[in-house]
Amino acid sequence: MRTPLHLLLLLLAALVLPVGLGTVTAAAAFDDLETPRSDGVTATPAPAPHDPAKPTAVVVVGDRGAVTSDVLAPYEVLASTGAVNLYTAAPSRHPVPLVGGLDLVPDYTFDEVDRLLGEDAPDVVVVPALPDVGESTADPVTDWLRRAPARGSLLLGVCSGSAVLASAGLLDGRTATSHWFRLDGFEDRHPAVRWVRGTRYVDDGDVVTTAGILSGVDGTLHVVERLLGPDAAARAADATGWPHYHRGTASAMAQASLAPADAVVGVNTAFRWDRPTTGVLLTDGVGEIELASAFDTYAQSLAVRPVAVGSGPVRSRHGLTFVPRADPAAAELDRLVVPGADAARRHAADRYADLDPVYLHHDPGFPFDGALLDLARTTDVATARWSAKVLEYPVDRLDLTGPAWPWTPALRPFGLAVLGVLVALGLLRLRTSTVTKGARSGHSGTGPPADSVVP
Q: Which InterPro entries match (predicted)?
């Protein structure tokens, strides 16, 4: 009877430290993804003057932020056409955190967009994944979106932005897609939607939805085809360096699912206690996709903690306003990376030479190539492949080099389990020794025990 009990206690002891410490570490890792700034610093955006002769596109963000690439990739694709009025809009105009801690100052509030357009409606409304979808804090977004179809807007739901549209009731009875990791849950929560898999986007008339994160590039190029024609879409694909554009149709995509190799994200989330703090230097003129590649690649890996650094607010290539969270010279950084091909050409981080800055985009290619190559070199290949899978970005043509696996974090739960068992064995031995000593002291008299029978 005692042996099974002891085995059960040892099993629990083996689990308590890995589970307990892993849960704390994982909670901190996820909190870092969407932490809002608390210093009250802001900046004034400067959107381009409105041209009534051009179609208008609005990229929505919530007060609690959005996924970085869901916002910035469609924004740059649309901006690169040069043929649309393009704005970001939110319920209020304070810096909102994009995933990884990049703070965007929206161009307008929803009310300001309505006043700017008057009787007209945006031709296109881009809806990214929001961290608070389904919560009351997202109500200002969904309330504004519900008016869009009636006004004639084309809705583009990027990644889990389809869940934002579904929560607003705008996908009922429609066909849609979303990120592979979320689809099962969305099917349960929104059964009135016909969810499909294995495609980068679904066109359902006045609503287009895309699969995960960078599939939003394909969905946006499709919207450009509808709005401006296929030649404009081809030029936008060339301008942004997107290598997977297929005119008139979505490129083929195998439906992803969790695989044994994806255990790396669990290791990184729960047992990479020494996640390096990587400063991402914000510079004027940086491309929006270049910026997204730094923050989303590292943040989605859950192996690196990116933080936006710089000397003050910056303006991106197509006019978005971002506010850094720290000065590189004062922040406690393990590394400094610099996104942007232009920043690499002009050595924009030379004054921070003591931090040995790494220019992510000194080589040509789609911006996410440089970020994924750096992630593989500085963490491991398995982590880089996980980030690419989450991003839905094919990496077969990339030569990802670096350690194969995060061996040190992977061994930590086993070390904790052994430590827990040793502590439990020590406590059991101490308890057994105490009981034995007590029994001996209770029988140390010269006579027989009181309840014994003397023949």
A: Class_I_gatase-like (IPR029062), DJ-1/PfpI (IPR002818), INH-QAR (IPR052158)
